[in-house]
Amino acid sequence: MISHPDDEAMFFGPTIQTIHSQGAQTHVLCLSNGDADGAGAVRAKELEKVARYLNIRSLTLLDDPRLKDGFGETWDEAVVASHVDDAVKRVDGVDAVLTFDARGVSRHPNHVATHAGVVAWMKTIRDVGGGARATRGRKPKAPAAWALVSVNVLRKFALAADAFASFFLEPHVLVVSSNPLAIVRAMSMHKSQWVWYRKLFVVFSRYTYTNTLKRM
Fold first, then answer.
1. Model confidence over 84-121: pLDDT tens digits?
2. CA geometry: angle at 119 spanning 10 and 128, to 5°?
3. DSSP conformation letters of 65-126
4. Tens of pLDDT, residues 124-158
5. Backbone phi, then psi, for 150, in 5-degree steps?
6. Are 147 and 115 in contact (CB under 8 A)?
7. Cα 186 to Cα 168: distance, rounded to the nearest angstrom
8. 213 - beta bridge partners?
9. CA distances from 137 to 91, 93, 128, 140, 143 (A)
10. Maximum Cα–Cα distance for the chain, whole Å?
């Protein structure tokens, strides 16, 4: 579950590659089209292109007026939770959901709200006994939920050194990109966003090379 077109490449690339290397599929729910600067239609097309490049099995891109892109926008966690539930229902056999943690990597309020919405959805399906996965006569196991761990600025740009520290010091799952250049290429396909500071971020950020994931 991502908040904007380009989140999948900027933050979750190593995880997507690792999932595919294990023979599993990825499905992306993007909660907004990133229209804060009026480029929503352009960004939507860019995400569709990147989804094909990254071999994402299905993409759901929302344009919900209640989920507007922007640092000053407030997203209702119940609205997010509803969209998460709808997305899980559309895909048969979902066994895991991945999104941001409570800090949202960059503390972007849309990222934080995405996390809060997934937490609200998890509570709902646990309360009703499986939610979208419920079947007659038995209580199914709900999909596992995982969060991408946010790190401080020093660790964010420590690259290999941070991966080494994460491996030995954190009780979470560490995944490593099999092809960082492909992640950089994917991000560059978001041409409307491919400005100098994002180029620097993608090249030097640990999120191009490693992801640390924790159970929610």
1. 999 999 998 899 999 999 999 999 999 999 999 999 99
2. 140
3. TTS--STT----HHHHHHHHHHHHHHSTT--EEEEE-TTHHHH-HHHHHHHHHHHHHHHHHH
4. 887 766 544 444 445 557 899 999 999 888 778 87
5. -85, 145
6. yes
7. 30
8. 148, 173
9. 22, 18, 14, 10, 18
10. 56
